[in-house]
Design brief:
five-stranded antiparallel beta sheet; 493 residues; 27 strands; 3 domains; Immunoglobulin-like; Neutral Protease, domain 2; 22% helix; eight-stranded mixed beta sheet; alpha+beta
C-alpha cells in the first residue's frame, strides 16, 4: 500500500527525477481497539429460543500483539461465498454470506467480525442460530455443540447501508462511495463493513463473490470472472472466484462505470484492467506495464502466485492511497510506474506470503519498496546503492521519518509508518550486501516458495537468511530491523 502525499488535478503528484512524492498511509492503530469495542444494540435476529449448548465459545480476538481484539478464535475459515446485490443510488446493499469453516475446538458459540449492517437471518448447518451483537462482534450460538475438527457452514443474511471507516489521519476504508459507485477497501479492518468473517490475516480462505448491480454498472472483485449474467431488466451479475487463499483485508469489490480491458501476458496469464473513463487518458500505460512488471517480478521473486492479474483505476478523490487488493490492485487515480510496481510486487509479499501478525507488517512493505528501488535502477534512474545512501543521509523525500521507530517493532498507532517502508527496504539491502546477490535472491525465491499462499513471520525470515548464507546475521538485524538508533553506515553482519 502507498499513499499520495498530495494530488493535483486528479493525478498522482511527482517530484524531481520522476519520483513520486509519497508518504505511507497512517492507518488508525491506537484508536482501533476503541473502534472495535464500541457497544451496539444487541439483536436477537433469526434464532429465538436456541438452547445453550455444551462446549466453549471461541474467543473474540486472535491475540494479535498489536490488535488483540481483531479476528476470532475457535475456528478456521475455509471458504467465503458472498452473494451481494448493490444499488449505488442510496448506497443499499443486500448480502448473503455463506462461511465454511472447521472447528478448532468444541464450539458452543463463535464470533464473526461485522460492523453496521442489519442481520436478518442466521443459520448454522441449515438450522436457525441465535445471534447477539456488541460493537463489531457478532456472536453466533448454534443449536448444538460443533465438535472439534468438524466442518460447518454459517449463513448470514443481512442488509443496509454499508459504512466507511475514517482513520485518525482522515484516511478512509471500509465501503467507500464514489461519484458513480463504490469500492470496498479492507486494510486493516474495513472488510467487516460489508461481510461477516474472521477478519485477521492469519485466517486465509478462498472466495466466491457474486455481485448484482444495475444496468450500466460493472462490478469488479478479486480472482477470475467466471460468469456475467444479464437479466431482462438489465441488472447484471458478475461472478468472481478466488481459488487461492486470501486474507480478508485484501478482498474488494469496486462498482462503477468502468472501461474494461481483458488481455493476456505472453505466458497466458489473464490481465483484467478496469478504468474509470475520467482516468483513461492518464492510464494509457498501465495495461502494457502490468505484464512487464509481472514478468520482471517472476524472474526475481519466483512464479507469479495467482491465476490472474490486473488493476482497477478509479476516479476517487476521497481515497488518497493505493491498495494491493489481491490480483487487481486498486488505484484511486491514474498511477505512475513506481506505484504500479509497488502494488504488483505486493502480490508476492503480503498477498501470497501474508503476515502472521500485524507486527510483521515490514515484511509486507519492505519488498515492494525495495522493488521500487530496483525498478528505478533498471529503468535508468539512481542505482539501488545510491537510493539507500539517499535514505541514510535523509536526502530522499521519503526518508524524513524512517528513524522514528524500528520497523521490526512498530507501534500500534503507526504500524504503516515510514520506517516500515523505507527502513524496511534498507534492511533488505543490508542483507543483500552481507550475503551477496546470488544468495540474496535465492533467499527471496525460497521465501515465496516455502510460504506460498500461507502466513509467515519475521523470525522465520531471519532463520532462512542465516541458513542460506551460513552466516550469523544477528547483529545486522539487531541494528537495522530492531535498533532504535540510526546504525553506523558500515555496520553489517
Amino acid at each position: 500500500m502507498r499513499t499520495d502525499e498530495h494530488i493535483s488535478d486528479g493525478s498522482i503528484a511527482r517530484t524531481g527525477g520522476g519520483r513520486r512524492a509519497l508518504a505511507p498511509r497512517r492507518l488508525l492503530r491506537g484508536a482501533l481497539p476503541a473502534v472495535l469495542l464500541l457497544v451496539a444494540a444487541c439483536t436477537g435476529d433469526g434464532g429465538g429460543g436456541v438452547a445453550a449448548a455444551a462446549g466453549q465459545p471461541g474467543v473474540a480476538g486472535v491475540g494479535d500483539p498489536l490488535f488483540p481484539r481483531l479476528g476470532n478464535g475457535g475456528y478456521d475459515v475455509r471458504h467465503y461465498g458472498l452473494t451481494l446485490d448493490y444499488v449505488p443510488e442510496g448506497n443499499r446493499l443486500h448480502g448473503i454470506a455463506v462461511v465454511k469453516s472447521r472447528a478448532k475446538q468444541d464450539l458452543n458459540a463463535f464470533n464473526l467480525d461485522f460492523k453496521g449492517l442489519k442481520v436478518r437471518t442466521a443459520l448454522v448447518d441449515g438450522k436457525s442460530a441465535r445471534v447477539s451483537r456488541k460493537g463489531d462482534e457478532l456472536t453466533v450460538t448454534p443449536r448444538s455443540t460443533i465438535g472439534k475438527g468438524r466442518e460447518f457452514e454459517t449463513k448470514i443474511v443481512y442488509d443496509g447501508k454499508p459504512q466507511r471507516v475514517v482513520d485518525a489521519d482522515n484516511g478512509k476504508e471500509g465501503w467507500v462511495e464514489t461519484d458513480d459507485g463504490s469500492v470496498s477497501l479492507g486494510e486493516p479492518m474495513g472488510s467487516m463493513t460489508w461481510f461477516p468473517g474472521n477478519h485477521h490475516p492469519s485466517d486465509k480462505a478462498t472466495y466466491d463473490i457474486n455481485v448484482t448491480v444495475p444496468k450500466g454498472f460493472t462490478a469488479v472483485a478479486n480472482g477470475e470472472l467466471k460468469r456475467r449474467t444479464v437479466a431482462e431488466d438489465g441488472r447484471t451479475t458478475f461472478a468472481w472466484r478466488t481459488a487461492e487463499p486470501m486474507a480478508s483485508y485484501l478482498a474488494s469489490v469496486a462498482v462503477g462505470d468502468f472501461t474494461v480491458s481483458e488481455t493476456k501476458t505472453k505466458d497466458g496469464l489473464p490481465v483484467y484492467v478496469a478504468v474509470d473513463p475520467d482516468e483513461a487518458e492518464r492510464s494509457k500505460g498501465v495495461e502494457k506495464l502490468i505484464p512487464k512488471v509481472v514478468e520482471w517480478g517472476s524472474g526475481l521473486f519466483g512464479p507469479y502466485p495467482f491465476s490472474g492479474t490486473g488493476a482497477v483505476v478509479d476516479n476517487n478523490p476521497d481515497v488518497d492511497y493505493a491498495l494491493e487488493t489481491q490480483g487487481k490492485p486498486y488505484f484511486p487515480h491514474a498511477p505512475d510506474d513506481l506505484l504500479v510496481v509497488h502494488e504488483l510486487v505486493h502480490q508476492w509479499f503480503g498477498n501470497s506470503v501474508s503476515p502472521r501478525t500485524w507486527r510483521d507488517m515490514w515484511l509486507n512493505e519492505s519488498f515492494p519498496t525495495y522493488a521500487e528501488w530496483m525498478w528505478e535502477e533498471k529503468t535508468g534512474g539512481r542505482t539501488v546503492a545510491k537510493i539507500f545512501q539517499d535514505f541514510y543521509d535523509g536526502t530522499d523525500k521519503l526518508s524524513e521519518d524512517i528513524w522514528d521507530f524500528p520497523p521490526g517493532n512498530p507501534p500500534a498507532d503507526d504500524v504503516s509508518g515510514d520506517p516500515v517502508y523505507g527502513r524496511g527496504a534498507m534492511v533488505l539491502h543490508k542483507v543483500r550486501e552481507a550475503v551477496g546477490d546470488k544468495t540474496f535472491f535465492d533467499i527471496v525465491r525460497t521465501w515465496t516458495k516455502q510460504h506460498r499462499h500461507g502466513n509467515a513471520e519475521t523470525r522465520q525470515f531471519i532463520e532462512l537468511c542465516e541458513k542460506k548464507s551460513g552466516k550469523d546475521l544477528g547483529k545486522l538485524f539487531e541494528a537495522w530491523l530492531y535498533g532504535k538508533a540510526k546504525p553506523p553506515r558500515g555496520r553489517a553482519a
